[in-house]
Amino acid sequence: xxxxxxxxxxxxxxxxxxxxxxxxxxxxxxxxxxxxxxxxxxxxxxxxxxxxxxxxxxxxxxxxxxxxxxxxxxxxxxxxxxxxxxxxxxxxxxxxxxxxxxxxxxxxxxxxxxxxxxxxxxxxxxxxxxxxxxxxxxxxxxxxxxxxxxxxxxxxxxxxxxxxxxxxxxxxxxxxxxxxxxxxxxxxxxxxxxxxxxxxxxxxx
Length: 205
Ligand code: MLT
What we know:
5 helices, Rossmann fold, two-stranded antiparallel ribbon, alpha/beta, single chain
């Protein structure tokens, strides 16, 4: 398969939710397992490693500067990741109706890009510290997709109005979007985790 990844099946059967774990810059496929386990103890988990290296640090797409993305690469990587999700769905017999991305920072940005360009492969996402990845020529129909954004009021990397714009894009596309503001910077806090866990619990019902 085309991405380095780690798969942990659900202990409770193959109909369970799968969390697709997408790390931040410099992370790897293992990073978000503890977080995901906390968010959804019974979910299957698929940790993926970004293929682009920036000074040796894995990422999911190239950037020209902090917050300035190489759009051509982003689009290419978005489709590449979508094909991987389809492949993994077959290989690991995932329930395609219940695949949620959980992304942090760079991983949240590519998850948002997948929702805009390849919406069929995800049911929704938890996006920690996401920003607008790109402005698609046309917004897709995201009706039925559930998205939780957790943004930091004092994030030095993601300006507040950028988070607001992303949330508006999801809303205009018809997604069920919740934007949650944390009294935090770019790093995650216990409060982020508590909010995300509650949101995930509602998904299971
Ligand atoms: C990005 O490059 O995706 C964002 O600047 C977030 C980051 O990875 O620092």
